[in-house]
Amino acid sequence: MTDIPSIMNKEKLLVVLKELGSSRTLYTLLCIYGVSKVLYHTFLDPLRNVPGPWWAGFTSLPYSIKKLQGDISSYVKDLHKRYGPVVRISPEVVSVDGAADVRKIMSTYRYPKSQSFEDVLLSENMFSTTNESYNRSRRKQVGPAFSHTGLANIEEDVMKSGIISAAPILHRVPFIMVQLRKETNIMFSFVHDSIKARREGIKSGEISKDRLDVLQMFLDSTNPDGSKLSEKEIFSETFLMLAAGTDATAMSLTATMHMLTLYPEVFEKVCNEIRSTFTDRSQLIRYSEAKDKLPYFVATVYESIRLLPIVGGLVSRDSSSEGVVLSGIVVPKNVKIGLYFEGANRDPELYKSPESFDPSRYLGPEGDLLKKETFSFSHGVRICPGRK
Ligand code: HEM
Questions:
Q1: Which residues bind heme (predicted)?
Q2: What confidence score (pLDDT) does residue 179 get?
Q3: Which residue out of 117, 131, 384, 387 has the highest number of ligand 1 atoms within 8 Å of its CB and is therefore the one to mutate?
Q4: FRET label pair with 86: which of 6, 27, 69, 276, CA 20 to 30 Å apart?
């Protein structure tokens, strides 16, 4: 049998290609495409009423370029300055920088993390999941390790071992991949060996099984269906804790040191407070002592990470199947909302002279209230469990 449709298709295709070859047809097609885009954007685009630069409705190229350059922060800051607290920055993304709006989104599971989080680290874990009950149960399981008793319990080990550094996501960047892949492998082995050593230690009686730390919580926990956590789950959650905790802490300390070098008068005050409170230089200062007796130092850390939070770009959430009203602007359903923590941390409604470095804002009872407003550890239902 002759393959009539395929012959027809070939002939038709040739005619179409010939037609396209004539520049007039191409020009007409481009015009139709352009006009339909403009008509869609003017009358149908669900985000047409969200303020923003005109091109944001048509292309994400400028945003993607800034993303590649690692400069989203200043770019988004500039757009918010020009267009207000809710800005469209690409055809699908709306950025939000008002503290009240960011709090509204973060305070509930109604606006879930975007799906793009799901593959960030190994298999599903507390950070990557978009599932409310999964996240709730993991947070509950690990909670006791972050209580005051839990933290005091592991302080001795931290004092002995120090903190290791990790950069698990950067291995996707091609140029530095080889070195970082090596480091990720070191972390994999570290987590694997730690789990094995803990099990053996408990079996031999060398380690108490009542130990209150992150690893023990996951080893002992049960899932809502009554089953123990699988090897894969224990590995993924423990690896996450290592990755999320180490670099966030290192970056926050770097931000603090950076600010101290920029403001020598603050540095001097911090030194004086520490030296006058702890006169014995050989004594190691414990976490609880620092918290209770070094208010200016603690305030300096809060102020440094207010201005330089570890999340420099946007944290993604979905506007849910209902949509949400932010600063009086309707953000329709199923839109990606980028939460700009750095902007919310400088909201003039919350902070006097938000751009200035002033640790004293975090002193006294008012300062304590302000600490709860920071977005440096995220906020609401997905707030950082390691923030203490
Ligand atoms: C100064 C230190 C830290 C800072 C500034 C910090 C900041 C943050 C921020 C901003 C988030 C939200 C990220 C997002 O939603 O995209 C987060 C989440 C998280 N952090 Fe931290 N963090 C710190 C230390 C730690 C430590 C020490 C641990 C654990 C040992 C930890 C474990 C986590 C986990 C598991 C999440 C995910 C929570 C969830 O999605 O429910 N962090 N952290």
A1: 384
A2: 63
A3: 384
A4: 69
